[in-house]
Design brief:
With 230 residues, the protein is an all-alpha fold. 69% of the residues lie in helices and 0% in strands. The mean pLDDT is 86.
């Protein structure tokens, strides 16, 4: 029997991550639809509010302003502008297939999030005041999914261009920290249930991993580090 090489091991890990994300999203969706997460959602959402006045998030006013700034990092406008800007840079670098891969990944993630929201049609939290304007259904969190899709995808591309393990780890940590910041801000601002955010993270990571796997297999991603390095 032939031994697994590095590429085969990586592909297997990617497929396991995608399978785990699909399973996790399906389980979360089932629990939410059956109302099994109601107690968890309510207790965690209220834990971030003044017990005397649920319209007041815990912490000083500057924390509320920082939360609003942080939540914008997962917004559609920021995500689209960043993706288009980076795609234009890749085109100028002579990497049109990679630019198309990035735009397809982000666009597909946005479409999936919108369709899944419409399918589940979960109402927004009604226990607390919303500190950010919302116009769509609650599950999964679009900000959480899009931040995971965009930042994990970009991190994967940057890590592919780096030969040093420490630099790869740093890039991954920064991407994960941004995703956590965006998701937590959505709960803090009262516009999402905690399980909305968990589902968004799960879907975003799964989608980014699936796109990376497909892009790698179809040759959309450069095979040499020098192609991505400046």
């Amino acid at each position: 029997m032939a031994r697994f090489g590095l590429a085969e091991s990586r592909n297997l890990l990617l497929l396991l991550l995608v399978s785990g994300a699909i399973w996790g999203l399906a389980e979360l969706t089932d629990e939410v639809l059956e109302g099994e997460t109601a107690s968890f959602d309510r207790s965690l959402l209220l834990a971030l509010r003044n017990p005397v006045d649920h319209s007041d998030p815990i912490g000083p006013r500057w924390v509320e302003e920082m939360a609003r700034d942080a939540t914008a990092l997962g917004g559609i406008l920021v995500g689209v502008l960043a993706s288009v800007g980076i795609a234009a840079y890749l085109l100028l670098r002579g990497l049109p297939r990679l630019a198309g891969f990035l735009l397809a990944s982000v666009g597909g993630g946005l479409l999936f999030s919108s369709l899944y929201k419409a399918l589940i049609d979960r109402p927004r939290p009604d226990l607390v005041a919303h500190y950010s304007e919302v116009y769509s259904a609650s599950f999964p969190s679009g900000h959480s999914m899009m931040s995971a899709t965009i930042y994990i995808t970009l991190a994967a591309l940057l890590m592919r261009a780096q030969p040093h393990a420490a630099v790869k780890l740093y890039i991954l940590v920064v991407a994960v920290a941004l995703c956590l910041l965006v998701g937590c801000s959505r709960v803090y601002l009262g516009v999402h249930w905690p399980t909305d955010v968990l589902a968004g993270w799960t879907a975003g990571i799964g989608w980014a991993t699936l796109c990376y796997f497909i892009g790698s297999r179809l040759g959309f991603l450069p095979q040499r580090q020098s192609e991505l390095q400046t």
